[in-house]
Amino acid sequence: MIPRYTRPEMAAIWSPKSKFGIWLEIETLAAEAMEQKGLIPAGVTAAVRERAGFDVDRIDE
């Protein structure tokens, strides 16, 4: 997005932090579905929600 034509609210929606946060949530929901189907051990989703995170600066390296 071109910064000078972008409202702060829209920039926040399309920011890398928001994008990676959504990706993390999708992967967590996928793990939850796999856990419910017995494809991964019980408790994995809770551990992912508790421990998972990301650093945009490290991703950009």
From TrEMBL:
InterPro entries for this protein: Fumarase/histidase_N, L-Aspartase-like
SUPFAM superfamilies: L-aspartase-like
Record flagged with keyword Transferase: no
Keyword Lyase appears in the UniProt entry: yes
A single GO molecular function term of this UniProt record: lyase activity
Keyword annotations of the record: Lyase
Record protein name field: Adenylosuccinate lyase
Origin species: Hyphomonas atlantica
Lineage, highest ranks first: Bacteria, Pseudomonadati, Pseudomonadota, Alphaproteobacteria, Hyphomonadales
